[in-house]
Fold each of these.
Amino acid sequence: MNNPRAHNTTASHYRHISLVLAGFALLAFFLADIDITTRSPGTELGRILAGLIRPDFFATDHLLQATLFTLSFAVQGVALGAAVGFVLACFWHYRSVRMASATVRAIHELFWGLIFLQLTGLSTLTGVLAIAIPYSGIFAKVFGEFLEESNSKPAQALARNSGPLSTFFFAKLPLVWAQFKVYGAYRLECGIRSSAILGFIGLPTLGFHLETAFRQGDYSAGAALLYIFFLLIISMRGWLHARLIPIYLLAALLYAPPLSSNTGASLWRFLSHDIMPAPLRSGYSGDLTFSRWALDLVSQQAVPGLVNTLVLGSAALLMTGLIAIMILPLLSRHFSGKLVRSGANIFVIMMRTTPEFLLAFIFLLALGPSMLPGIFALALHTGAIIGHLTSRIADQLPIPSNSARGLNRLSFEVLPRVYGNFLALLLYRWEIIMRETAILGLIGIPTIGFYIDSAFAEFRLDRAFFLIAVSVILNLSVDGLSRTLRNRLRLHA
Amino acid sequence: MFTFEHHTLRKQGVVILDDISLHIAAGERVALLGASGAGKSTLLQLMREQHPDEIAWCPQDGAMVPPLSVFHNIYMGSLDRHNALYNLRNLIYPKAKERRAIRTIANALGIGEKLFTSIDRLSGGQAQRTALGRALYAQKETLLADEPVSSLDELQGGNLLRHTLSTHTTAVIALHDQFLALSCFDRVIGLRNGKILIDQPAASLNHDDLLPLYGQASPT
């Protein structure tokens, strides 16, 4: 007998997975430290807002220099990443290539920056490699999947002994070239964001001056830097043309040659000595055994760091979903008039243009150190992106004008139709949320990045390396889990 | 040149070709007829695999690279004649010699004006002419083609078909146009549900003989 109360609908599957995810996230909220620790958050927030209204473009020295460095690092890093990623994508059918690119992209640009500070110092090379290495992993994945999904008929129709190189350039590459270009432009936008926040670890980009200005409470100077950053990204449409890219690259190379005064000797020392667990190094004189070293590190740093990262990331995931669904009606033509839509659009553009890390930093100043600023920042940034993408899908739906309105329309007509896309996007972004959660440690929120940053600060590179490896495993697991869920629900963004 | 002895092919349990016995000698021009799903494309594919390097191949669709020009899509017929470096050079900046050779082919096919227009900006008929151009530029003795003139009207299609046949010594071409099959070829092979129903000289057949291929009774 069929149970008459058993639901066999797609909607009930969506509901089920949403409830499980939300349950975990609620648990995370209870565990999370979400106190507001500043005495009067309203006052500080007011001062920040006042600064945003009255930006001061003359308060920061070397403003032009910082802007040009930001662009130079981004252009060089993205170009190198795209070139390496392109080569890797040609070998995407090898499991080892897929594993290697998953690993390098699981480590955030800021962590790569911290690693290269040890090797190549405060130099352009550090900034360029910090962007290029994780981006090559991302490019490899995206380009590799484009090539895999492209039509294989043209290649099959060629004479069998046309040669792999000719086949690739005539019958494969032209099919995906347009997609490559669009994705490359999007990545350059991300590269400018990454380049800016690399200033937080000391590189001379906009983020460096932004951090200084905000920490000193000079919010007018900070606001000016923020607006310059917005301008760089929003104006991209106007200055990013395929033909001009070689010129930009040349200019970037001339303005900031990717050099470092450090020699290769320290690379060997770094690999063979510095990142080796201390008790295993040759000439170790302390009394720690390796197992003791590992056990201490795991129990005192890795586990608390991982738990905090998971708690913050999960809470942020729930809040991201809620914000996206709240923004959706404001952005969609099914619910809002032109005025509301353009207002909501400005908000969304600002939120997705500002890196999560930067938002978290600003909220942290207002609300004090806890997980709350991190949750807010991740949820606002990611929620804006998902809300925007979902609303675009919703706007393509034809909905008869005589059907339900308002909340009824949202819950009966629109949400059931777009929920699959929404869930897919949310699960896609989950990995990115975890990646960003980890680096929030650099501004004092005790995720795994906090312990990594402290280990670098104490020059305990062995510990830093171990903890980075732990964060890689966390990221790869979340990525795997998200893929499993998407496949099970047969979701596509 | 092509030989099948009691050949049966199944894909996922479905019989595609059923006990096919067939011999095609070099120098023959064969039209392959049959309703869609009769197994024509599969049979051509198997023929191609018997002599992969000696065949000018013109599949039904999807073989053109849409963002590339007519020139490049025709040039692709000759990739196996040159080294990769020469091919890349012609991808980026075509040599005058190649331009001349391919312009001649394109003119004969009526697409000379469109030589440097990409396939995604052409009509289906123009894309089909380009596909024929590629097969011609492969410069092989043997042509295997699957519905190469289906998007053209009978007059133009007939002219192009005759032009293409005149440049190959052996040809097996799948068609849906029965008139062209009977007027341009030496031999007609008719398939129905994976079986060979007709295999006769074209001169000995008339239109009514072909009706059973499409599930209609012959009036005689």
Amino acid sequence: MMKRTILTLCCLLASLFVTQAQNTDEASIRRRLNEATARITAMECDFVQTKHLSVLKDKMVSKGRMCYKKSDRLRWEYTSPYTYVFILNGNDVLLKNKNRSDIIDVDQNRMFREIVQIMLSSVVGNCLDDKNFKSSLKATATEYVATLTPQRKNMKQMFRQITLHFKRENACVTRVELTEKNDDRTVIELNNIHLNEALSDDLFLVR
Amino acid sequence: MKRSLTIFSWCVSLMLSSALPQKAQSLLPSPSGETARYDAYIELPRGYLSGICIMRCAGDTLRGSIFNEFGVSAMDFVYDKRKERVRLLSVMKMMDRWYIRRTLRADLRQLFKSMNAGEGEYHNERRHILYRFTPMVDSLNTPHPHDTEE
């Protein structure tokens, strides 16, 4: 009887230590990622977006280029197999496809507000302390992985989960996975990343 | 003489066949297993949706998905070519209302009938909705028989 009690106590203590260690580990990763994110003033990269369609068991690959300038300027441009430009500059968004060009006030459009927030958070990775997401972090040998669960109703209606992969050596986002409610998955891989290099303001012109 | 007549009648028949209207080629994927991709554009009285539509033929049915350029799903559907009926498998929450589903079902049915006749456009004049599906020139996603996911 005594033996069993001691064993149970030891198990409890051990699990307490493991949890404590995990919390400390997660806190240190969070701190490291937040510090790295704060240092990003500009970012430029190529991206490959792969949409996995659950209904068709098929995928659609598109490619493009992304430019970001702190804190609210983003150019997200698809070049292949279709051309589509999304430019965010403050509260204004320019959408340009082969049919038309539109300027949208983000504050006036609920859906775009959500999309803009997800895009900014994803590419820069500054959503770890965002109350709109419940986040958990883990580390592998080569990367940090943040799993975000949307908390706001509008965002929950679009995405079940968002996973961000950060390169361990510079804490930079290299891969984003968006899982939708219908089990479709969109994977965005960021390549040829250039951090904090000069970017022309003309890239972000909304007109 | 016989040979001249044969050549003459062959020339006439050739001229007639080229003058007759040709049956337009269907824009829908066929035969079974074939996948087609389209630039999708839906213009509404107060806004528009643009994106990509992918359809795959499986016997008498077409399975398809429409999503925007960022990859966010708008709807998944099945079209029964024999019965000319559309079934919506999922619709994004923002559009998931019974009256929108009803309009979408009816309009997509008309659009697919038009596409089968070689015309990638349908205009719902009552509700002022324009559907335009243009086959995509797509080097990145050229369908391959083994290029499906498990």
